[in-house]
Every structure is written in structure tokens, then in C-alpha cells.
From TrEMBL:
Ranges for domain HTH arsR-type: 2-88
Name this polypeptide is given: Helix-turn-helix domain-containing protein
Organism: Amycolatopsis rhabdoformis
InterPro entries: ArsR-like_HTH (IPR011991), HTH_ArsR_DNA-bd_dom (IPR001845), WH-like_DNA-bd_sf (IPR036388), WH_DNA-bd_sf (IPR036390)
One family name in Pfam for this protein: HTH_20
Length: 174
């Protein structure tokens, strides 16, 4: 299974999201964060991601006779590189987009189901804007967004920080 096929699955993508904060988590901790997926399903998908090298074992400890593993995300492996994206078919792009949207809906539904969820206080946003851009203006916008986002993608968990899911989506309408 190639990285594109491996990452384009709603459960595996949610595992990647959960571990993207830089903090290792056990499968039990992942199950608490992704509570709408059965433990057996979660274990299977964590195993696939670990086998592919997208997750690595950060720590092992014995718990009641079993070995409990904490997993860490290998950010360098949890991406679809430019060559894979360039060689993807239109059906591949359709599947990637559908998976991203399915995952986004599942993550938002899980957020709304948490005690104390408050979209206004949490500054939740889901606006869409239609903008007219030349190819050069589009390239400039993408560069500007990267300059703003890339330093924040390196943020580690810390007191006062909460993990947020940011999903920029950009495509021509005509």
C-alpha cells in the first residue's frame, strides 16, 4: 500500500491528526480522542500506520501483563509528496478530497459532542470566500499562506495551547 492509499482513509487520517501535536499517545488514549471508532478498528489502523513507518513506537511499558505502546507521528512520512500528487489521477484526487471532507465532518462532530463545546468562544470558523485571482496572484496567495502557517505548524503542545484543525481548501470554480 503506498502512502497516498495509506493516508487516504478517514480513521487513519484522524489518527494522524490526533498525533500531529507532537505528543506520543497510546492506543487507549487515541481511542478516548476518537471515541466513535471501535478499539479493534483503531488498533488495526494504528498497526498499518506503524508498519508503514508513519507512526513509530515512542515507548513501551508493561500494563497488567500486556505491553502498552505509545506512538509518535513521523511528520516527514505523514505527507503525500509533490510527485505522488502530480501523478495522481482525477479519481485519486476525488477520493482524497472525499476522505478529507469525511474526516473533517467526523472531527467537527466529535468536537461538538464534547462537554463544554462552544463554537463562538472557541472562535470556530467555516467561512468560504470566492476570490478572483490570476495565476500569479494565486501563487502569491499560496506563498503568503505558507509564510503565515509554516511557523505555526512547528508549534509543540504547551500550557495555554489547544490543538486546532485547519483545512485550507483551494480550487477553481470555473
Amino acid at each position: 500500500m503506498d502512502d497516498l492509499e495509506l493516508l487516504v482513509h478517514p480513521v487513519r487520517l484522524r489518527v494522524v491528526h490526533a498525533l500531529s501535536g507532537g505528543r506520543p499517545l497510546t492506543t487507549t488514549e487515541l481511542a478516548a480522542r476518537i471515541h466513535d471508532v471501535s478499539k479493534a478498528t483503531l488498533y488495526r489502523h494504528v498497526g498499518l500506520l506503524a508498519e508503514a513507518g508513519i507512526l513509530e513506537v515512542a515507548e513501551e511499558q508493561r500494563v497488567r501483563g500486556a505491553v502498552e505502546r505509545s506512538y509518535r507521528l513521523r511528520r516527514d512520512r505523514a505527507v503525500v509528496d509533490a510527485d505522488a500528487a502530480a501523478s495522481a489521477t482525477l479519481d485519486d484526487h476525488r477520493k482524497v478530497f472525499a476522505t478529507a471532507m469525511t474526516t473533517l465532518i467526523a472531527e467537527f462532530t466529535a468536537y461538538l459532542g464534547r462537554p463544554g463545546a462552544n463554537p463562538v468562544e472557541d472562535l470556530v470558523g467555516y467561512r468560504q470566500h470566492s476570490v478572483w485571482l490570476s495565476h500569479e496572484e494565486l501563487a502569491e496567495l499560496i506563498t503568503d499562506l505558507r509564510e503565515v502557517l509554516l511557523p505555526r505548524l512547528r508549534n509543540e503542545p504547551a500550557p495555554g495551547r489547544r490543538q486546532h484543525l485547519l483545512s485550507p481548501i483551494l480550487f477553481p470554480l470555473e
